[in-house]
Amino acid sequence: MRAIAILQKSHVEVMRLIDTFTNEQLFTRKFFDWTGTTSLGSYCFSATSSHYDWAMKKIKKHKKELN
């Protein structure tokens, strides 16, 4: 259960950080030079929901292999 608490805390911190940006900053491609040709929002999506989806698939696969 400690892992869940750490994940929840991390998620809250990431969401607070994301909330500091405007929609323009998040969704305008090339708004920040360091994002290259993509938007900051794309990176946020990859670092949150897409990553969570990937991790859940890995966990389910591992659980299946244990049984």
Using brief descriptors, characterize the structure shown.
0% strand, 67 residues, mainly alpha
Question: Can you describe what's shown?
Answer:
By secondary structure, the protein is mostly helical. The chain has one domain. It has 3 helices and no strands. The radius of gyration is 15 Å and the shape is elongated. The mean pLDDT is 92.
Query: Which bin fits the share of residues in helices?
Result: over 70%
Rg, Cα atoms, Å: 15 Å
Low-confidence stretches: none
Q: Secondary-structure element sequence?
A: HHH
Q: Tally the structural domains.
A: 1
Q: Termini distance?
A: 21 Å
- What average pLDDT do the residues reach? 92
Main β-sheet description: none
Number of helices: 3
DSSP strand content: under 5%
Topology of helices and strands:
Layout: H1 2-18, H2 23-27, H3 40-66
Summarize this, please?
The protein has 67 residues and is mainly α. It has helices spanning 2-18, 23-27, 40-66. It has one domain (2-66).
